[in-house]
Amino acid sequence: MGEMTPYLKFKSLLTGYRQYRLLEAAFDAGVFDIVGAGSVTAEALCGKVGWDVSFGSRALGALCVLGFLEETPQGFRLSRHGALFFGTGAPHPMAGTLVFEKRLFDAWELLGETLKTGERVYSATEKSEAEYKKDLAQYIEAMDEAARIRAEELWALVMPEKEAGRFVELGFGSGAYSLAFLDRHPGWSGSLADLDDVVGFFAEKKAHHPAFGRIGLSCVNLLEERWDLPGCEGADLLLLSNLVHCQGDDETLGIVRRAAALLAGGGTLVVHDFYRDRGEAGGLYDLHMMLNTYNGKAYTTGEMRAMVEAAGLVFAGDLSLPSGSCAVLARKM
Ligand SMILES: C[S@@+](CC[C@H](N)C(=O)[O-])C[C@H]1O[C@@H](n2cnc3c(N)ncnc32)[C@H](O)[C@@H]1O
User: Fold this and answer.
1) 247 in ligand 1 pocket by Cβ < 6 Å?
2) CB distance 223 to ligand 1 below 6 Å
3) Cross-strand partners of 189
4) What is the C-alpha to C-alpha distance for residues 151 and 321, in angstroms, rounded to an integer?
5) What does the pLDDT read at residue 125?
6) Mean pLDDT of the chain
7) What is the pLDDT of residue 1?
8) 3-state DSSP call for residue 268?
9) How many angstroms is it from 240 CA to the middle of ligand 1?
10) What whole-number distance in Å separates Cα of residue 263 and Cα of residue 168?
11) How far apart are the CA of 3 and the centre of ligand 1, in A?
């Protein structure tokens, strides 16, 4: 298919929620778990998920149109595209992402009011310890699903010049970027730092990973003006991935400055994120931060260049990734 006409682009934006609602209804009902195990007739499938056969068959047809399922003489099954994301053995499972996305709707309902108020309106309700832990696990799982895809994109473009070195990631989340880097570069060791609950979660979930033994972990609040991170000093490559959007200009500049101070001479800082001047993803991410954080924002690549230069580094270019994010690179001389 050629380029979308302006009207087609408008219309697909206008009705995008219909695709999402169908995907959500099918996911929530368990359709993908069932077709993931092999072809199944519409009658059997609808019976298992509790759908009316006549209406449910139409929904299954629509899932074929969207490209998630295909119909064979034996019934419905996952298409090649659908099998990337659903079913046992999917290389890029998206179940956590679908569960997490629902949590964002309430904040987006408040966009108009937020724009009028000029400050965050949405606030999460008070959580018990158990709810907080469950929400953190969901957040990290959703982040991990996206990060595992995007890490491959990043490290295919950003390659170290040395066989061995010290890799540092601050605000590592699920650790997907760090683990993917260390997988590719067995001569490197890693030092990772994040808030203590996130560090604990990583240590619990990823201890079995082959690169785990080459990683040192530290707990830190990156907003504090002084960091006690001796394990992160002398970094040959330091990654800030999807971290700078969590806070406003002054705090982010402080983080960039302190991160620059951790670099070894000749070391590289990689600031990977969604940038406002790099397509739709960055523009919408900026609003996502407006709605869901105290003062987070998506920066432009120009703003980030000014920050790395203010931190005494030499801007070394930027790289756009296929999934819409971008890496700003800077060197310590
Ligand atoms: C959006 S996640 C990104 C995780 C990972 N770098 C990635 O790209 O998938 C932001 C991470 O930064 C961490 N973070 C945010 N503010 C922080 C702070 N003040 N101190 C330490 N870590 C922080 C969060 O805990 C979270 O793990």
Assistant:
1) no
2) yes
3) 166
4) 10
5) 79
6) 96
7) 55
8) strand
9) 9
10) 9
11) 37
Residue 68 confidence class, pLDDT cut points 50, 70, 90: very high
**Ligand 1 pocket check for 199: Cβ under 6 Å:** no
- The 10s digit of each residue's pLDDT in 118-152 is 999 998 778 899 999 999 999 999 999 999 999 99
Pairwise CA distance, residues 333 & 330, whole Å: 10
Query: Tokens 């408008």 appear where?
Result: 10
170 Cα to the center of ligand 1, angstroms? 7
Q: What percent of the chain has pLDDT over 90?
A: 96
237: helix, coil or strand?
Answer: strand
Nearest CA, atom 11, ligand 1: 171
Q: 65 alpha carbon to ligand 1 midpoint, in Å?
A: 37
- Could you give the residue ranges of the DSSP H alpha helices within the chain? 6-14, 16-29, 31-35, 42-49, 53-65, 82-85, 95-102, 105-109, 111-117, 129-157, 176-184, 196-205, 249-262, 280-292, 301-310
CA distances from 196 to 107, 205, 223, 333 (A): 26, 14, 14, 32
- What the chain holds in terms of domains, given with CATH numbers, is 6-91 (1.10.10.10), 150-331 (3.40.50.150)
CA–CA distance from 292 to each of 38, 98, 230, 285 (Å)? 40, 18, 32, 10
Q: How many residues does the chain have?
A: 333
CB of 4 within 6 A of ligand 1: the answer is no
Q: What are the CB-based long-range contacts (under 8 Å, 24+) for 82-87?
A: 82/32, 82/35, 83/36, 86/32, 86/33, 86/35, 86/36, 87/32, 87/33, 87/35, 87/36, 87/37
Substitution candidate for ligand 1 out of 155, 179, 195 with most atoms within 8 A of CB: 195
pLDDT at 46: 98
Mean of pLDDT values over 157-170: 97
